[in-house]
Amino acid sequence: MKCNVGKTDKIIRVILGLAIGAVGIYFQSWWGLIGIVPILTVLISWCPLYFPFGISTCKKT
């Protein structure tokens, strides 16, 4: 798997993942677990939704 998630994208995903998780905890809902998905994509630096479309936010080196 080639990196396709850049630095700015990672920051946005972490914030979004934590916000979704916090809302899930606040409302005591299992839907908050969806916040794990963007955080996992940050940890592996690869987004499966970007792959079929050939999108990459990583800098080319």
Helix run count: 2
Shape: elongated
Question: What is the SS-derived class?
Answer: mainly alpha
How would you characterize the largest beta sheet? none
How would you name the oligomeric state of the polypeptide chains in this document?
single chain
What's the β-strand tally? Answer: 0
> Average pLDDT value?
94
What order do the helices and strands follow?
A: HH
Low-confidence stretches: none
User: How many structural domains does the protein architecture include?
Assistant: 1
Instruction: Report how far the terminal alpha carbons are from each other.
Output: 16 Å
The Cα radius of gyration reads 13 Å
| Helix fraction by DSSP (H/I, runs of at least 4) | 40-55%
How much beta, percentage-wise?
under 5%
Overview of the structural elements:
48% of the residues lie in helices and 0% in strands. The protein has 61 residues and is mostly helical. It has one domain. Helix 1 runs antiparallel to helix 2. It is elongated, with a radius of gyration of 13 Å. The mean pLDDT is 94.
Which features does this protein show?
61 residues; mainly alpha; 2 helices
What is shown here, in short?
With 61 residues, the protein is an all-alpha fold.
List the helices and strands and how they pair.
Elements lengths: L6 H20 L9 H9 L17
